[in-house]
Task: structure prediction
Amino acid sequence: MKLDKIIAVRTNKTIYRDGDTCVKVFNDEYSKSDVLNEALNQARVEEIGLNIPKILGVTLIEDKRAIVSEFIKGKTLTQLMEENPEKKAEYIELLVDLQMSVHAKICPLLTKLKDKMERKITQANLNETIRYDLLARLEGMPKHNKVCHGDFNPSNIIITKDGTPYILDWSHATQGNASADVARTYLLFMLKGDFDSADLYLDLFCEKSGTEKKDVQKWIPIVAASQSVKGNEKEREFLLSWANVVDYE
Result:
């Protein structure tokens, strides 16, 4: 295996290209169970018929755990937006369509979104009253079983030369309420300071899916709190400010 071409560097992992394969190498902070769980998530999603890179194996490379999958050649939606700013609305509509295709699937063996969020909110740097309120809200949210990506953003969509879209990075996949997944994508746009795209995305998703905007907005503080346990200090501060918002109605 020749790992001389770095595709991306993420927190605690490096992604390489080796010919027609993509190799994600994890550092020692990732446990064996975390790596195997990520590979299992991707394998399970692969089986429900979405366009995603196929898992080829899990291995050790110089004592570091790695996931090997298909390499998908193309450009991310982020790159296309930067290269063709006049088509940004068109690309965001494609993002919405792809996310709706994910939500149309069910995958019963994925972790339940509510369970994962509950664990994370209990770890968040929030006072006890706010944490209690958020956990109570989470418990009261409608229970669904739709596939939720968990990190659905333009950088995780690859468009091949013939126009075929592939959805990458299924490490955060769960089953649950699609509005929570939409709230996460909205916050990802906001984190980047792209407020116009955030609003356009939310408007388009609600219009095309028939979702009430308030149903997504109710999830925003819950999702923000659950995501605040990772990332850098600036991101945590931003997310915690959203987690402290009491109402959107």
Notes: The beta strands are 5-10, 13-18, 21-26, 55-61, 64-70, 75-76, 146-148, 157-159, 165-167, 174-176. The longest helix spans residues 88-103. The mean pLDDT is 93. The chain is about 45% helix and 20% strand.
